[in-house]
Amino acid sequence: MIIETLSWGKLEVDKEQLYHFPKGIPGFDEETDFVLIMMTETPFWYLQSVKSKGLSFLLGDPFAFYPTYEFELPDAEAEELEIRSDVDVRCIITLKENVEQSTINLLAPIVLNPEELKGKQVVLHKAPYHTKHSLFQEQPVIDGKDGG
What we know:
Elements: E1 2-5, E2 9-12, E3 18-20, E4 33-38, E5 44-49, E6 56-60, H1 62-65, H2 75-80, E7 88-94, E8 103-104, E9 110-113, E10 118-121, E11 133-134, E12 141-142, E13 145-146
InterPro entries: Flagellar_assembly_factor_FliW, Flagellar_assmbl_FliW_dom_sf
GO cellular component, one term: cytoplasm
Keywords: Bacterial flagellum biogenesis, Cell projection, Chaperone, Cilium, Cytoplasm, Flagellum, Translation regulation
């Protein structure tokens, strides 16, 4: 399958990279099909919309930056994603011009079922996380400053 991207132009992808987000991603409800593109030998991925070449998200492995990161996936979310065993968790990263100010959203991880190729951004309502944790220290970033 060939998709068009803003960053890489036309890109050939395998069907195993195509994830369906039945309810879209919050703020992008109409976007339901994304390709997961691995950046080799890094803890980063791109989640690229199949429909809109200008819509992509930089994702990171939260456990690479926050080894103690954990949450319990609500049963309803696990059922919706048809999770039986395998599950991948990625979080959206916001890159800043000064890379040291870049953040990762630990409050609303992207949960992926690699068996069924389904995904969902899950908002953790009872978790001690924020939308803007620094990539480089275990503290949230509040208004562009280190929080604490």
